[in-house]
Amino acid sequence: EITLATILSACADLGSLSMGGEIEEYILRSGLGSDLRVQTSLIHMFCKCGSIKKAKEVFEKRVLKKDLAVWSCMINGYAIHGMGEDALSLFHKMQHEEGIKPDAVVYTSVLSACSHSGLVKDGLQYFESMQRDFGIEPSIEHCSCLVDLLGRAGDLDLSLKAIQEMPIRVQAQVWAPFLSACRTHCNIELGEFAAKKLLDLNPGSTTNYVLVANFYTCIGKW
């Protein structure tokens, strides 16, 4: 089972749906389809390879006893495909119908779902509720999602305020979505400010240099 999970993870990283499908056929022929770790890996692979329909099929029809990890995997699948309403509906079902308590990882997926679907009000409420109702302290991943949520919606001032008031040490990871939002909404002043912060915090990152280059190209300064 561990080997199959590793192979499926590799298929997910490569985006190879055809190879992942062949592994699924082998799993079913071998009678390993009921193993929860394998099922979770299948869902993850299908989501990463763009087949949310197949992921949902495995989740709903094959996984009979769902743990937190498999719920989190499916919620994250909806999130990365911009299916925010589906992600939140599943999150609600997990808590109120199945009685499963969410953890920090699930909340990252929920906040990401809100961000990619423009559900600003919901995202802000979930950011507060994870602390108030479950005692989950915001991580850098949660804070990055919050910055992205506000930035995508065009509220750059509030997004910047969220960075400045973070309860944890600010890292380059939070400036990246802010810079992307500045590029999208053509805010040169804040974008140049974010670009400097990004490079100061992590000067050796090729990814960050690409983000900065894309920003300056967009505003005609490259």
UniProtKB/TrEMBL annotation:
A biological process term (GO) from this entry: RNA modification
Keywords: Repeat
PPR repeats: 67-102, 103-138
InterPro entries: E_motif, PPR_At4g14850-like_plant, PPR_rpt, TPR-like_helical_dom_sf
Lineage: superkingdom: Eukaryota
Keyword Repeat: yes
GO molecular function terms attached to this record: RNA binding
Name of the protein in its database record: Pentatricopeptide repeat-containing protein
Species name: Davidia involucrata
